[in-house]
Amino acid sequence: MTDVVTPVQNATPHNTKGDVFQSFNVEDFPVPGGRDEVWRFISLRRIHGLHNGTFPAQAPVQVCIDAPSEVTVKEVSADDERLKVCGGPADRVAAQAWTSAEHGTIITVPQDAVLDRAIEVTITGAGLDATTFATILVETGRHSEATVIVRYEGSGIHADNLNWHVGEGARLNAVVDTQWARDAVHIGQQSIRANRDSVMRHTVAAFGGEVTRISPRVTFAEPGADVELNGVYFADAGQYIETRMLVDHSVPNCRSNVLYKGALQGEKSSGLPEARTCWVGDVLIRAEAKGTDTYETNRNLVLTDGARADAVPNLEIETGEIAGAGHAATVGRFDEEQLFYLRSRGIPEAEATRLIIRGFFNEVLNQIPVESVRDELIARVAGELEHNNN
Predict the structure, then answer these.
(1) Count of other CB atoms within 10 angstroms of residue 4
(2) What is the DSSP letter of 46?
(3) pLDDT digits (tens, 9 = 90+) for 301-325
(4) Residue 99 to residues 22, 190, 257: CA-CA distances in angstroms?
(5) Full-prediction pTM beyond 0.85?
(6) Domain assignment of residue 358, given as a range
(7) Domain SUF system FeS cluster assembly SufBD core, which positions (predicted)?
(8) What is the reported pLDDT for 347?
(9) What rounded mean pLDDT belongs to the chain?
């Protein structure tokens, strides 16, 4: 008797996390369950049906773009092939966003342009009784230089695909600030395609929202590209913040560096769900990616009892001919020796604690090139610490 093998729906014969199934059609993905690997940390009941199609009625997404005169902004049909240059959705919510988006937006920085101010994109939620979806592509021409600031604000249920296509020799700084109201839900995939000798600096600041999950995915299209993924997050009681990333080295002589830092606080007595964060960092070095140089780091500070952080770094290496590779992740309290040192010099314990935590975050925040944004995020960290002490 011959055994009959029934394949899992939409499974693909892949050996690495870089070869996972992708599709622009939500119906190509099965409805996920809580035991599925990519959804096992998040509470599906808290994302208002984004994963199974039972979300509240869809509303038009509000996207405001302020850009220098050299920049072109076009609204295109949702099925425009140009939107697909960075790859497809890798999970059902990202595919739902793609399928449901009424149109797409392409922001283009022309070849050789050096912008004298940042492109600012503001996405505003439509309220908790409505769901919004968006598809946005930022593309930078050959040898151009640009900074893009994307802010999410207001209340609502939102899912999107925010993609970045970095041209040959271009330099792109991106700051993604999820400054949602405390009751918002946001699931977003961000795909980066880096061409020859390009430089990408991508920073995520996650402070707002009830549930926020950002999934950066990096594809190196040509040799010589350099990508850094940085992030800061701060979760209070009732908040869940997840980062799930993939850096796919598939061509020679590229560099990547990942640095994410987070803090959590919130007592069980608040009556809210525990403050929780999850960081999953996958780095893949394929056999053909000789000369790769990569490192990823995730650091977490748990400031109160009743908070939980998960840190899962993964490194797959298929060739030994690389410049370097490594990863590190920690979850713990702040350094008691530093606290003792500051207190021994007359600094009160509460102020000493704030100084240590600000220093912890500044390693990431100081890399943000826009001073006003950097100062705003530093002030936001200070506000979180003040809230903890009140």
Answers:
(1) 5
(2) G
(3) 998 888 999 999 999 999 989 999 9
(4) 13, 16, 32
(5) yes
(6) 335-390
(7) 129-360
(8) 75
(9) 91
Same domain, 221 and 370: no
Closest by Cα among 110, 171, 188, 121 to 149:
121
Distances (CA, A) of 85 to 81, 167, 284: 7, 12, 21
Give the torsion sign (CA, 74, 77, 81, 85): positive
Task: List, for residues 91-104, the tens digit of each pLDDT value.
Answer: 999 999 999 999 99
Q: Quick check: helix, strand or coil at residue 29?
A: coil
Contact 303, 335 (CB under 8 A): no
Per the listing, tokens 């003792």 go with: 340
Contact 275, 310 (CB under 8 A): no
**Do 329 and 339 lie in a common domain?**
no
Number of domains in the chain: 2
Q: How far is CA 147 from the centre of its chain?
A: 17
Residues 293 and 347 in one domain: no
Which of 316, 216, 305, 197 is closest to 258 using CA atoms?
216
288, 317, 333: which is the final residue of a domain? 333
Whether the CA torsion 363, 367, 372, 377 is positive or negative: it is negative
Spatial contact of 59 and 157, defined as CB atoms under 8 Å apart: no
